[in-house]
Amino acid sequence: MQPRLDYTKVSPGARKAMLGLEAHVAQCGLEHALIHLIKMRASQINGCAYCLDMHSKDARAGGETEQRLYALNAWHETPFYTERERAALAWTEALTLVAETHVPDDVFQAARAQFSEQELVDLTLAVVAINGWNRIAVGFRTEPGTYQPMSRLQGQSIPAHLAQTGNLGPLDLEAVSRLVDDISRSLSVQGGSPALEEIRAEVETLRTVISTPRPKHSWVSDSLTSLKHTLEGATGEVIVDGIKAGQYVEAIGRILGLK
Length: 259
Prior knowledge:
This protein is mainly α. It has 2 domains: 7-145, AhpD-like (Up-down Bundle); 173-256. It contains 15 helices and 2 strands. It has helices at 7-10, 12-27, 32-46, 49-61, 66-70, 83-96, 98-101, 105-114, 117-139, 150-153, 160-164, 173-188, 194-211, 217-232, 245-256; strands at 238-240, 243-244. It has a two-stranded antiparallel ribbon. The protein is elongated and about 60 Å long.
C-alpha cells in the first residue's frame, strides 16, 4: 500500500487542530487503559490498520494484557472487562456507527451509570478524536508498522528500519522542553510581527504536546517538525540578542537526529 499524501506537510494546521483535541483527551482524567480500549475498538470497526498498530503497541506499553486485546472484538461475550469499560465500549460503538444506531437510550443510560456528565463529554471527545484519526489514516493510506511508543524509544539508538524509511529516531524530552523554554523566553521580549506570532503559536502547541502524560513519539516529532518548518520560513528573523530563527532550526535538527 502506498501513501496517497502526507497530510502533516500539506496542512500543518489540520494536524495542529487534531493534536489539540488529542491533548485534551490525554489530560482530561479518564483512565489511559480505558482510552486505549476505545481507540482500539473504534479502529477495529473502521478498519484502520495504522491506528490498530499504534494503539495496540501503546496499550501493551501501558501494561494492557494480550488476552484483553485479542478478545476486544468480542467484548460482549467475555468477562475480561469492567462494567465501566463495557459501558465505554458500547458508547464507542454506538457513536462510531451513529448512522446505523442513532445512539440508543439504553446505551446512554448505561454510560451515565458509569460516567459523570463531564466524563461522558470527554469520553465522547475521545471517540470523536479516534474516528477523526481513523478517517485521516484510511483516507490518505498512512502506512502502518513503524510506530513505536515513546517509552520504548527513550535512550535507544535509531532502529535501522526507521532510519531507512525516513522516520524520526528517539527524542530527548528534556532537550525539547529546554528548547521550548528558550524560544519562549526569547520571544517574550520581541514585538508582534506575523512571523513571530506564528512561531509563538507553534511553540505553544509543542508545549501542550510535551506536557501530556506519556506523549506519543509521533506527536512530539510532528510538532517539532512543524515548528522547524515555520522557523525555516523566518530564517532572517532575529529572535533575541542576535540569535536568528535559523539557529533554532539547527537545534531542532539535532534533537530530531537529522543530518
